[in-house]
Amino acid sequence: xxDSGKTGQNTSHHPHDKGYRQLLAKRKTFLELLQTFVGExxxxxxxxxxxxxxxxxxxxxxxxxxxxxxxxxxxxxxTDVIFYVLLELQSAVDHTMxxxxxxxxxxxxxxxxxxxxxxxxxxxxxRLPAIVPAVLYNGDGGWTVCRSFREYQLGQEGLPxxxxxxxxxxxxxxxxxxxxxxxxANVISSVFYLDQTxxxxxxxxxxxxxxxxxxxxxxxxxxxxxxxxxxxxxxxxPETLQDEMDHVLEETEPWEVDKMITNIERTxxxxxxxxxxxxxxxxxxxxxxxxxxxAARAALxxxxxxxxxxxxxxxxxxxxxxxxKSLEN
Length: 329
Hints:
The chain has about 325 residues and is of the alpha/beta class. It is built from 14 helices and 5 strands. Among the domains are: about 10-175, no CATH class; about 285-329. The chain has a 5-stranded mixed beta sheet. Helix 2 runs antiparallel to helix 10. The protein is extended and about 90 Å long. About 30% of the residues are buried.
């Protein structure tokens, strides 16, 4: 039986996962996600104080190394509702998503059922909590997966009334327009706007475009954006520059955004310099090796013994033997 008792912290392995988990673990930001991107009236009935984060992951062991989830509970119109959001932060879509969501939802229901006293479960009025499934996806390609579980089943055209069905909410980060995200001017829309680019230079430009929004945030909200940036950007930097990026993002206040942008640019420039230096060194090493290989080929063509060629070039016997075989063929 899958272990549904793992904490979310243990489930999240990718820096992006960690960044989004920390972001959405804040009730205010999770409520922003719903009210900004779910165009349904019921989201405006939710108050921040009604939401309770469930510090448990329902991701199955088969998938625990590549995804994470966020789970909230609230009472809406007297109904116990659980929001289950899967963070699908991968470059490609997964067409098994409807079935995977079903498995996670069953785990949530199983957990709720087993933690309800038997006497209460047998009561005529007992009901399982309502689950609203959602997927947060930030891949480059469009989301082409079935949006309802009924579509995932054979015979769904002729047996619609008898088939299990649910529809999930999709938060497709890269499909939101720039104007829409800038107009929302909150934490989650700002992060989506920054997440739409993987190029460090473009990222800096987008931070600059958001400068006024970031400056207007409370220190708490600004810190959430900074934490997401640290998780999303730091992993792309060489280890020698990661501490510097930590310092840049941890020490900045909302009114110091311009200084933060300058410091990030300086760090990225240093990264490019290091990459150019390493590239030159690698090029020289590769050139030397290629020169030895050419010398070995020439010596073998002249009929020199393998051991002699090894002494002349400094190449391993295995390498020289491979070269000899290629010449013979």
